[in-house]
Design goal:
The structure is a homodimer. Chain A has 14 helices and twelve strands. Chain A is α/β, with parallel strands linked by helices. Chain A folds into three domains: about 55 residues, Orthogonal Bundle (434 Repressor (Amino-terminal Domain)), CATH 1.10.260.40; about 130 residues, Rossmann fold (3-Layer(aba) Sandwich), CATH 3.40.50.2300; about 130 residues, Response regulator (Rossmann fold, 3-Layer(aba) Sandwich), CATH 3.40.50.2300. Chain A binds a DNA duplex through helix 3 and helix 5.
DNA sequence: TTGAAAGCGCTAACAG
DNA sequence: CTGTTAGCGCTTTCAA
């Protein structure tokens, strides 16, 4: 009847501790749960602590989970793990989870299964207590599903509206900061290269516009070019810009990948960076440092995004009240590397 | 007494299914466990299946885990998640885990806690059934700890000796393949730039040597330069090579990062790639495509490494016998991009 | 073929 | 302050 697994035989359980400390299991349990308003005699607590130490007791999370119908496990749904940003976010989430006594499951990168289903399955079977949602796919469905399950979740590095808890980045402020760097270098024709469709794009363009306005520069629609988020977009985008009568002297790419594309075209066309043209990336990562010239970019507290989101989720799961459930973290700083420099003198007067 | 959580009230349990199907919970359990040598009347099985469907029953993993002292959870210890390779491996592991009905925990990237301890703690408390070990830190301690716990584990993309199960890459073969690409282009002075200290380095150098020998080229010790695994190593390494009387016409870097460093120096020195010098990277990843010129590199089945390792681990955990527990996967192919080309004609005769 | 019942390890009501 | 006890949902032995 008793499963005769290695683990089952070896494991020290709460009664063992209780016996060793000459108390009932209930006391041990109560002490373990760290209940602030619990009253125990100091020597009792002492004895129990010692027994726990001595026996190397660790509570069995399955039993506890069964009893409390909680798993102390969170899951993070990630769309594409093969990206510069997610690993760092995961790392932060992992750290926070660990600190709060939770485990972190990473899922949803299969791409094959529908995220909402995955989430639902996990939640329904009590496998997880809460969800960190970073996905863009199936956004609406997912939220609906989560709403019907009334599952605790936090949106990570992403937000939809002010109805849902999120931890995101102040992309608008960051975009303004790096654009400002370019205006301060004397650039007056600054282009934006990146995805324009989604909300992220809109916010970045808004920040870019803020900085232009601040510097008293005119808004030039031909300088804002749809370039998506991949290398190819950066390439075609820059070509489009170079074909203009009055091409930009500085280009802000939405990420390192798009910047890399732009850089490749610049190299091919014999345009020297930063001498002939400055190039900056909106977000910093592993790649920025590796390109030559290395890319000026904005550093973001990505690890902290994961960390804060997880901390928030834990609080929600545990029913604690929260000062804030909508957080936008400011960018860390603009990292100056070698791809940006003073605006070139006007190359040719228009006839 | 009953915890009045939302979940606890809503959840459909095995007795509900049993009642609906007019059988005992035991039957349902047995049918669920998919026991091949189980005998039930077909109509009974039918009724049970229908009931399960109808009620949308999912077994509670906590209860099951408590009973069986298993968690159906695996953990992967990753040293630094912020690396081009790990995310892909994780993705493969995740997929395999899911397919076998396991969850995957990702841990150990904190860097702060000692991996062996983490692993031990996880295992001891029945939290996880097996471990995927990719870490290099604390290698010896870790294995000792794992050995004493007699915990099931598989080494991923890494091996120590033939005593432990592993899924790794045939790095030697891959190194030979890409070196061969360079010899076939007519290069006769080919340098190797990378970490030489660890086993990985040794194997890559061995493959490089294989291909040189194959092509009848002499072994030139001055062409094998310690460059570690980071950008800086690539920079100083290439400088060292350029200072030689007879510098190489082709350089093989151990990874994209080192290659990026070398490329930066080449650019700075006015060396045109691939016209004056070819540059190849041992391993392919996100970065290779982004550099200009883009890097010729070897593609590895990293996703498969994660997948196979996990499949192997599941088999070990479940006590199934295995055809193989030491696997080296061959490389996928050499991806030809724009950083390699025919060897230049000898630039100057030696006086 | 099927069912009854015990118990995995823990927590929380309730009673001392 | 501390102990007794029931039961979370599942599996499995043993009996029918």
């Amino acid at each position: 009847m008793t499963p005769k697994t290695r683990a089952a035989r070896t494991t020290v359980k709460i009664v063992d501790v209780a016996k060793a400390a000459n108390v009932s299991p209930a006391i041990v349990s109560r002490i373990l749960s760290n209940d602030a308003k619990l009253v125990v005699r100091d020597d009792t607590r002492q004895r129990v602590q010692e027994a726990i130490e001595a026996l190397g007791y660790t509570p069995n999370p399955q039993a506890r989970g069964l009893r409390l119908s909680r798993s102390n496990t969170l899951a993070m749904i990630v769309p594409e793990i093969n990206s510069p940003v997610f690993p760092v976010i995961i790392q932060g989430a992992q750290r926070a989870a660990w600190e709060h006594g939770y485990s972190l499951l990473v899922g949803g990168m299969g791409g094959e299964e529908e995220d909402p289903q995955v989430a639902g399955r996990l939640l329904r079977s009590n496998r997880i207590d809460g969800l960190l949602v970073t996905t863009g796919r199936h956004e609406e469905q997912m939220l609906q599903e989560l709403a019907t399950l009334n599952a605790p979740f936090v949106l990570v590095n992403r937000y939809l509206d002010e109805d849902h808890p999120y931890v995101a980045l102040d992309e608008r402020g960051a975009a303004a900061a790096i654009t400002r760097h370019l205006t301060e270098l004397g650039h007056r024709r600054i282009a934006f290269l990146g995805g324009l469709q989604r909300r992220v794009g809109e916010r970045r363009v808004a920040g870019y516009a803020d900085a232009l306005a601040e510097a008293g520069l005119p808004w030039a629609p031909e300088l804002v070019v749809e370039a998506g988020y991949y290398k190819h977009g950066g390439e075609s985008g820059l070509r489009q810009l170079l074909a203009l009568d009055d091409p930009p002297t500085a280009v802000l790419a939405t990420n390192e990948i798009v910047a890399a594309g732009a850089m490749a075209v610049a190299h091919a066309e014999g345009i020297r960076i930063p001498k002939d043209m400055s190039l900056a990336s909106f977000s910093d990562g592993m790649v920025a440092e590796l390109l030559s010239p290395s890319l000026t970019a904005v550093r973001f507290p990505l690890e902290r995004v994961g960390y804060e989101a997880t901390t928030m989720l834990v609080a929600i799961v545990e029913g604690r009240s929260l000062p804030q459930t909508r957080i936008s973290l400011p960018h860390d700083e603009v990292i100056l590397r070698h791809s940006t420099g003073a605006a070139p003198r006007r190359r040719r007067a228009r006839p």
